[in-house]
Here is the input.
Amino acid sequence: MSEQTIGIPPRGNIVTPVTTPATALPDGERKGLTKKEIAADHPTWCPGCGDFAVLALYFKLIEKRKLWHEKITTVSGIGCSSRFPYFVQGHGAHYLHGRSLPFASGISLTRPDLHLFVFGGDGDAFSIGGNHVNHTARKNIKMTYVIMDNWVYGLTKKQTSPTSPLGFKSKTDIWGAVDQPINPMKQLISAGATFIARTTATNPNHLLQMMEAAMDHDGFSVIECLSECVEFYEGAFDASNPRKGGKFEPVPADHDVTDEVAAYKLANASFPGYFGIFYKNNRPTKNALEAKVNATMQEKVQGKKDWEILQASFSRLK
Amino acid sequence: MSESTISSAVANGNGGAPQVARVNEAVIRFAGNSQDGIQAIGGFLARLAGRSEQEVMTFMTIPATISGGPSIFQVRIGSGEILSAGDEADVLFAFYQHSYQDHINSVKKGGIVIIDSDHVTPNPDWEKDFRHVPIPISSRTIEAIGGTAKDKGKNLFVLGLVAKMFDLNVPKIEKLVSERFTGKDESIVKTALTAFHAGYGFSVGHLIQNFQFTEAKKKSGSQVVMNGNEALGYGLIAAGVRFGAAYPITPWSDVMELLRRELPKYGGTFVQCEDEIASVSMAIGASFAGRVAVTGSSGPGISLKTEAIGWAVMAEIPLVVVNVQRGGPSTGMPTSVEQSDLNQAVFGGHGDSPRVVLAPTNVKDCFYTAIEAVNIAKKYNVPVFILSDQAIATRIEAFEEPNLEKVCQDITPDLSPVQEYVPYSPSGVTNRVVAGTRILNGKYPIASGLEHDEMGHPGGSPKLHMQMTARRRMKLQRLAAELPTPQVYGPPEGNVLLVGWGSTLGPIREAVDRARAAGDSVSSLHIRHINPLPDGLENVFAGFNHVCVVEMNDEGLYGYGQLGGLLRARFCDPKIRGLTKTDGLTFRVREILERVKTNVATGLRKI
Here is the structure.
């Protein structure tokens, strides 16, 4: 302990209430960010990985919508796709496998001033973190969740994923996968997510369109984005890619996005299925409902300082 | 002080005409079933003691099943310092035959046993040792408040009896009873008071003598009365915590219920999550985004949270984790007390993951420990455990009301722009800059569970991992140097030093008092900071021949409990020995004294 250099530099103590923190933006003349300013580390993904497209379009979204560094928070779990935050210049966190949604919920519920994006893979969303998807959807906590689905475990080098189709040969199913795969759309619809879309990394315009719509949705917005793993599941999504002789079929124009049953029927189509917004409704967010609870409770203590509210509680404990 | 205990007063009395004896303190045990409202009697008495500037401590058992079952509540009230809930009762109220049979052994020889003669047949053998007072509690209650209330109201009738026996302040009790039922039907208050007065007016003059507490020392300021879980919850609020997340589990749930109810008044939120992992993650997310947040649980739930706590250590995110310990392992004994999660708190993570562990010693200390935990977490960007236990969680104490204006703090994050932010420089603790803060040089850090460089970006070089591991460790070493060395209770040199932590403070100190009164050289030391340990303990230990670590956990493979093991590892001192037990009950003073004697007699070092 000879080089005891631990010290704590002082900073000001500007007090802001937790429900509406002040922005740090006195400067109205700031320009939107350039791609160069948004990019951080060079991605570690394999050449040809679908995830590059998702990252590029996230940058595009930030540019287009003039989001500032400090206003975006990028969160991820564990997996190839979850390396995401390191490649983005902005506050972010690379959290635990499968737990990015509850972590992000903690941010969402305390910091309504931030644009919150969560990125992850199919393992995060539908295997280890499956139940968190259900409950974040049920509670409708405001954030955008992009699931980069590649139907395989890539980071750990080709094991079966919860979305791997039957018969897929992996290191954990050398004779071919035997477990029924999860249908992400059906799962999300029944969980009660309030914005559910499906897109693919090979259609950049559509991907950006979905990201924008998801960002503008007041609630838990989820996108399943097919994102090919060229290393361990090459060609998985060719059938959805016109350049590879496949078909990109948009959600029919007459589809009613508020119709849960219709959405479920769309989700039932066999691969490559449909792309676009499957379902959307405007159920109040937990953020809004909790704020309402707080407003009601705070009416009763109006004008009181925090210690005075506590004092009142203590007075009843005598 | 033989003239001031109840058994001596009973022995001296002639049993004839009513008389008043003055006593210092009384231990009263109520034994019945959980639906009898026994806890409520205890609650009224504790609150009354608080309002009368008397010391009070309670002890209760809660049945593990929902449908009820035997339940007890013990309250010790006195004019002097009360350290524990008392080894033996002066007075037992037995509602049923099983209450009578199961608890007669907890009464002092010569003590008073009041039985509900509607349900209990006295045992002639026991009548020799204890003063039996049969009172038709059930039928008298029904008589007073009507036939429909068969099982209700007995508790208030008994409260009336107690009030009469101990000459308690009736207007104060009436006020307490009215307050308790505020907002309910007017007739409920009336019925409750009728039952109380029926008990108060019941003529027992010829059966029991009356007692009066000696005047309590005037205390400055007023007292508040609450249990440990309430004190923890309010302490967190005072500390400025405005977000928490958890999953229900006994005996932690009360804390989350309180925070869920109270936080909205302060603009905060408490979330009931789908599971333990989600709750710790949500709390860490909220901490990451701003002020220190809290999660909590009891043993099994903490086990589930451990991976996430390791992440918070790695990413250096502040967090408060409350563990209201119960008997383990696994589901164990959900409603019993044990101190067996110390190792889990200190070591419960993969990799080298140093974290802070604090242990409050009583109800009052729960309030202040919560604040200390938040401040340590905030200053050192580290998870801080608060190890409470079932005994502190459920017992009610009166303590001097904190100066809330002074104690309450605002930990709202500072979001003003900074020029640069390097969160993990190898050389120091950093004042955290949270999401939403503009960093003018355009370089933003990532909070990461991977080993990382000074900006949080992944890096696994041997040198970096060594540096960063040392960084995380040195924060705690720095904290250790700041911690006060605990004060020895009793002389700082002598034969035996009892070392304890957490809720055993009361019985250990009382054991010291009793041993010293009997001429034995015994002192004690209570450790509140479990990890890191404060500096200077070796000097304290040097003053004693024997160091006995008293704790409610198993003696382990090598003969000492969990704190004992930690202290032996730290100080390599064979005179540190264990005094442990695993019966799921709080320590009795007598138990400690007897065990210390054996311990010393068989000790490695003789005096």
Remarks:
- Chain A touches chain B through 77 residues (CB under 8 Å).
- The first strand of chain A starts at residue 72 and ends at 76.
- The radius of gyration of chain A is 22 Å.
- The CA atoms of residues 305 and 311 of chain A lie 10 Å apart.
